[in-house]
Specification:
This protein is of the alpha+beta class. It has helices spanning 3-12, 50-61, and strands at residues 16-20, 26-28, 65-75, 81-90, 95-99.
């Protein structure tokens, strides 16, 4: 799938998707939906806690597939609660973290 297709499809589905780099950092692979800005400014996702630890274990296993957590509840700066799911995806050539 081309980058252009991903950049169109992911925002249309209201998903925020990030590719994990070899150093453990993440880069956004498509424009992020507006709701995601309420969640995080730090792209290391420290608020994920044990979810990120479990995702790292999954990626380190070398297994392909998906692991899912949630729904997870967060409270934004205005005090509003919202919910989302987190998915760790592993394929032959990529490790992704997707927020729905």
């Amino acid at each position: 799938m081309s980058d252009d297709v991903l950049k169109a499809v992911l925002p249309a589905l209201d998903l925020a998707a990030f590719q994990r780099q070899s150093d453990g950092s993440f880069i956004s692979i498509a424009p992020r939906p507006a709701w995601f800005g309420r969640l995080v400014a730090d792209m290391s996702f420290p608020f994920l806690g044990h979810i990120l630890e479990e995702a790292n274990q999954f990626w380190a296993s070398g297994d392909e597939g998906r692991r899912e957590w949630g729904p997870v509840a967060e409270v934004d700066e205005s005090g509003s609660e919202f919910h989302y799911k987190v998915m760790a995806i592993a394929g032959a050539n990529a490790q992704l973290l997707v927020f729905q």
